[in-house]
UniProtKB/TrEMBL annotation:
Keyword Disulfide bond among UniProt keywords: no
UniProt-annotated location(s): Nucleus
Record-annotated HMG box domain positions: 10-80, 123-191
Molecular function GO labels: DNA binding
DNA-binding span(s): 10-80, 123-191
Tagged with keyword ATP-binding: no
Biased segments, Basic residues type: 99-115
Family: Belongs to the HMGB family.
Protein name: High mobility group protein B2
Pfam families: HMG_box, HMG_box_2
Signal sequence, renumbered to the chain: none
Amino acid sequence: MPKKAIPKGPEGPRSPFQFFTDTCLEEYRRRHPEEEDYLSRVRNKCQERWVLMSAEEKKRFIQMASEDKTRFKVEKDIVQIVELRRDMAGVKKLASGCSKKKREKPKKKQKKKQKASSEPGKPKRFKSCFFMFCSEHRKRVWTANPDFTPGDVSRELARMWAELSPEEKQVFVEKSNVDKERYQREKFVFENGVCESDSD
């Protein structure tokens, strides 16, 4: 995207002599429209006439120069205001970007807190048969293997679970079913806002 051009400054104020010269040139062009190469010659004559003019004759051009000086000051102030606003907009955008970056990290933390504290009173989900087994045997594995990392303990529990017979696993399946019934009952109470005695 092309950068915005920096606004040019206003045209400088014109002198009384410049206004007089412009008037002479305009008058000469009106009288001699067919002539082309006349600028330098007419300007030299204007300079000669200007020196011989009285203060009263110059008064009109001095007034024009004074008004043009006011025009220049106004336009200069406008350009400065435009440049100042552009600079302020750049600073504001930069500050907004910095503050936005600073706010991003707390927002992530807030989301986690909100997620953890959302829906207070919501029942805890039931444990699977494998997690029932882990809850019962994790402490034993830690005691027997104090040098194990949490990952080592999980792998050992998975190995022990795989070696159980279907009959041995059935104990934990039944415990999981009981916990599942507990979860479904508490979930019904939570979602419908009724007492457990009402749901029987």
